[in-house]
Design goal:
single chain; mainly beta; Neuraminidase; 5-stranded antiparallel sheet; 27 strands; about 45% strand
Length: about 325
Amino acid sequence: MKFVYSAIFTSLLLTACQPNSSGSKTTSSSLPSYCADAASQTITSQSIVNLVAEGFVFLEGPVWIESLNSFFFSEMDFNGPQDNGPRSVIHRLTLPAQINVFIDNAGSNGLATDGKDLLATTHDDQGLTRYSLPNKDRTEVLDNYQGKQFNSPNDLAISARGDIYFSDPDWQLGGRENQTGMTGVYHFNVKGDVALVDGSLRKPNGVTLSADQHYLYVGDVDGKIGRYPINTNGSTGQREAFAEVEGPDGMGMDCAGNLYATSHAAGQLHVISPQGLTLALIDIAPQLTNIAFGGPEHKTILLTAGGKLFSIDSPIAGLPY
């Protein structure tokens, strides 16, 4: 496959920010070190959107990994067999602008990191998967709730304590049975227990945590983004209405607690304050799927949209997935 690169992106430099000794990026009581001097302003509706690369099939799930100074993202192929979901590849974008296949036939959608390895929602085995960064070994983390296979896990977020929150719609279910009888949102804690956060949503999609990790945000296909208060033990409270976005997909978070929600249907990026107010609305491209902060000082926003990658230079730093 041939990729076409934008020269604008080649000016990116390597970031010096490192994880803390536990491998976590945040704690519930403090923000990451790169948030220390966070600006109060965000990107605006006039921000310049740069084309990074094109020529892919369908992109999803970007994540920034400090130790490798690279973004990673999934590419799904909807042109082939779909019985077990589309074939998927994980690509690595090494700064300044080199893209290589990192893991072939990964079966992945959303990606995240715990500061040590690459974590993925994987539709081929209908679960959560850990990929070792040094040797790319694949380990199944979780594939069922109360003995019933998940549908096609889509997106995930990892807390500082190591808890994983993820959505399980049925977009990539293919010809397989929906064993759970719902499309749910789940909490998988560090003890290995899995709990249902919400089983009432039509097709939950993007998930992210607030910068202070007090809330879990989840978007649904009906256009509503809700948030769940997170208790000190990682469990969640009742869903609260937060914002509405046409066809919400993946989401991101900046250091000031502003939510970045992608509208798949409209191809727009919404920047929403912690109070639910729209701060900016930016046209990106059709089939806008997801967002992650990374690069120098965590101020490069990488966006996946259909077969294209885009970037925006941000005045404020943000979280890596």
